[in-house]
Amino acid sequence: MELSQSVLISSAYATAAVVIIYAQHISAVREVQPDLDLTNWGLGVFVIGIVGNFYHHYLLASLRSDKTKSMNSKSKYVVPQGGLFTYVVCPHYLFESVTFFGIAMMAQTFVALLTAVGMSSSLCARSYKTKDWYLKKVEGFPPNRKPFFPFLF
């Protein structure tokens, strides 16, 4: 990943965090609280997202460590396998999206929901670009593998 892209993505995440915290601060002083408290459900969804994201990043990192072990031989790009990689090009993006929706459920603000939708849209678009890259660069990549969400899109 290029430095400029990394800075842009990091800035987007930092901005999202600041906006959600600010909206949460403003909504804390409102007199009427939501009828349904989604904090515990949101925490569960958040944890599922974090664990799924970690697991799929672990699978990706293990591919890199396998490449560095065989530095003497010329290595070519390997299509990730395991977990939801069997069905989805970027399952770590899917679980990152799940994490944002968990945060939105805990915050119970419209701003947090919009942030989750916006981040998920961005991650979905990046998944489509990643699939296009795989199809062009990696021989034998399964063309029926969905970019973002298993069996749907």
UniProtKB/TrEMBL annotation:
Record carries keyword Transmembrane: yes
Keyword Ribonucleoprotein in annotation: no
Per the record, the domain of life is Eukaryota
Give any single GO term for biological process. lipid metabolic process
Question: InterPro entries, alphabetically?
Answer: 3-oxo-5_a-steroid_4-DH_C, SRD5A/TECR
The UniProt entry's sequence similarity note says:
Belongs to the steroid 5-alpha reductase family.
- Protein name, per record: 3-oxo-5-alpha-steroid 4-dehydrogenase C-terminal domain-containing protein
